[in-house]
Write a structure and sequence with these properties.
Layout lengths: L5 H27 L12 E6 L5 H15 L1 H5 L3 E5 L5 H7 L5 H8 L3 E4 L17 H8 L4 E8 L4 E8 L12 E2 L5 E2 L6 H17 L4 E6 L7 H13 L6 E6 H7 L11 E4 L1 H15 L6 E5 L4 E5 L5 H5 L9 H13 L3 H17 L14 H10 L4
Parallel strand pairs: 1-2, 1-3, 3-12, 5-10, 8-9, 8-10
Antiparallel strand pairs: 4-5, 4-11, 6-7, 11-12
Helix pairs in contact: 2-12, 2-14, 7-8, 12-13, 13-14
Bound molecules: 3-isopropylmalic acid and magnesium ion.
The site of 3-isopropylmalic acid has 7 residues, from helix 6.
Length: about 400
Amino acid sequence: MNRNYDENIKAAVAKFEEMLRGQLERNEKICASKDFIDYAALDKIIIGVCGGDGIGPRITASARRVLEYLLADEVAAGKVEFRDIEGLTIENRAAHNQAIPDDVMEELYKCHVILKGPTTTPRAGDPWPNIESANVMMRKKLDLFANVRPVKVPEKGIDWTFFRENTEGSYAVGSQGINVTDEVACDFCITTTEGTERIARLAYEYARKNKKDHVSIVTKANIIKTTDGKFLRICEEMAKEYPEIRTTEWFIDIMTAKLVDEKRRTDFKVFVLPNLYGDIITDEAAEFQGGVGTAGSANIGKRYAMFEAIHGSAPRMVTEGRDIYADPCSMLRASVLLLSHIGYQREADALEAALDFCMFEDAALKMTGRDTGATCDAFTEYVMANIKK
Ligand code: IPM
Ligand code: MG
């Protein structure tokens, strides 16, 4: 080496140490975390509602309206409460210079589950300070380790459920990378035993309960040998406890290709995969179903759960005045997952059937995102009119 890097290395090692300490502490917390909350044992389930940014408030209001309709008796009996959580807007987050302002976080901690509209994540060049993503922060703070994303296209034989690990991998310390020098940058990827076991357990238990006979483990363990290697090994071990389920192993590149292979893809049922691959491939998967606007997502932890669209806040739809045509289906699909998660399976099934009917079978109204299609409000009413309570 020609140059002296001692000071750069010293500074980088100090940051690296801080990152490692944080991750070891997080790991201890995961290991100490208790069983899943039992919603049936609660006097009241509190559903926090955050509208978010861009098209978020509109599509979240649509989902809330449908949920309030389905849970009207429970709300009247005081068993379920819908609670507005203010302040999860980009303006307020920017004003506090925090991904989630402390007072908003305090309110979120008082809920059991959260219905959340998309929130804007600032990018370079945006007028906002470079704060972290509110989604990612919420997933971390509430330890929502499983991102469950179903994708269904009945006429093409597609019925997939993705179990994306949600708090580790490349996201765990996504804003704690190190610029070692002006020329050399370094990021980190984290896999823990407990963190992998809990997502694998959830995926296999789901497969068993729902009689899905195939689980695919997706990594890039041939290259990312330590962290993806660990993820793969732990999932393989878990597979042995579920002998009735066929397990296949894939690398993310070829799996991305196989999802467009019409002959092979109908064979896939349940996927379990690290955070970043899950992020990428679920957008691809949603595209077959009609785009990210049609896909909902559950973020599940042991104490909390959060339900959201898989897409962003679509600010361009708002600036172009097209937000009245925003597709509420992502948030309505998220509502199906919410209902099922808190124990209202009958209501979840009723909403899912109405959505399948309106999106795939009847299609009297079509969402196109512009004035060639239905408005968000009209589609919401159409779905409600087709719910068999
Ligand atoms: C998702 C989104 C988020 C993610 C963004 C908005 C931070 O793409 O939920 O898939 O990367 O996880
Ligand atoms: Mg994504």
